[in-house]
Structures are given as C-alpha cells and as structure tokens.
Specification:
151 residues; alpha+beta; five-stranded mixed beta sheet; two-stranded antiparallel ribbon; 30% strand; binds adenosine-5'-triphosphate; histidine kinase
Length: 151
C-alpha cells in the first residue's frame, strides 16, 4: 500500500477521463465539497474503474459520481439507473464468480470478479464498500473512507 495525500476531486476526474477515453458514456461528477484523503491512489483508481465499468455494463444512460461527506466521513458514490440487483442477490455480489443472471448479463461476458476485487482493494486502503440497489431502477455503490476529509 502506497499511501499519499490526494485530492479526491482530481483523482475521480482523472479516473473518469480515462474511462471516457475507452467508452462513449456520459459521466457527471458532482462535488459537494473538495477534499483530500490519505490513500493509495492506484488502488483507489482501480476500485473506481470497477464500479464505473459495472455501471456502464448494467445501465444505459447517464452515470453519476458524487463526492461528499456523510457523518463527517469522505464518501465517493457511483450511481447508475440501470437494471439493478434483486434484494436477495445483493449479499452475494461480493462473492467470487457470482453473477446475478447469466442470461440477463451474458452479453457483457463478465466473470463475477469485479466486485470481489473491489472489496479487496477497499480493504487494502481501509475503506468500506456499501452497495444499495433496486431491481429495475438502478444501483448505488459507495466508498466510505475511514477518516474524515482533510482540507
Ligand atoms: P467482471 O468479472 O467482468 O467484473 P461481473 O460484472 O459479472 O464481471 P462483478 O463486478 O463481480 O462481476 O459483479 C457481480 C454481479 O453483480 C454482476 O454479474 C451483475 O449481475 C451484478 N452487478 C454488479 N454491478 C451491478 C450494477 N451496477 N448494476 C446491476 N448489476 C450489477
């Protein structure tokens, strides 16, 4: 783990720039407050990329990324308005090789390894991942940093 003090806004914007270079998808960033956190930037970028990639695969319109503080913690969230995940499957999506529905999601050819890796990356940078989803409406995945933002 290579800890550095990084600006979340800059890191998120950089990740989205490289994501947009690969995929023609619209991504909106909303910054409630500019903030810095102590983290491993490479790992955080990789983690964000997994979440953006899932949002891309399982939705068709605008992807939103919000940077904010909740209960004095720095939080990044990736929000899509896509197919969502049924409640009974939500606890399994962090298991290796789990995919909600091979028919429904088959054309994207995933292996069910993205979210388990995202979880490992989050553990490595001492952050928590929190997924909430409504089937047919969309999915929100939050990354909660342990420490509050430094300015
Ligand atoms: P890959 O290994 O290429 O990342 P994957 O997307 O199938 O493939 P995960 O990222 O681990 O693997 O996700 C597991 C499953 O959770 C997916 O197959 C999909 O069914 C569901 N899922 C993940 N993110 C979303 C999302 N944003 N919207 C809807 N379903 C999702």
């Amino acid at each position: 783990v290579d800890l550095q003090i990084v600006s979340l806004t800059d890191l998120v914007e950089e990740s989205i720039r490289s994501f947009k270079a690969g995929y023609k998808r619209e991504v909106n960033v909303f910054v409630e407050q500019k903030m810095k956190v102590k983290t491993d930037p490479q790992k955080l970028k990789q983690l964000l990329y997994i979440l953006l990639d899932n949002a891309r695969k399982y939705s068709e319109d605008l992807i939103k990324v919000n940077i904010m503080t909740i209960k004095n913690r720095a939080v990044i969230e990736v929000v899509d308005r896509g197919i969502g995940i049924p409640v009974k499957e939500q606890s399994k999506v962090f298991d290796r090789f789990f995919r909600v529905d091979k028919v429904r999601t088959g054309k994207n050819g995933g292996f069910g390894l993205g979210l388990p890796l995202a979880k490992e990356l989050a553990d490595a940078i001492d952050a928590k991942i929190c997924l909430s989803s409504v089937e047919g409406e969309g999915t929100t995945v939050q990354i909660w940093f342990k420490k509050g933002p430094s300015h």
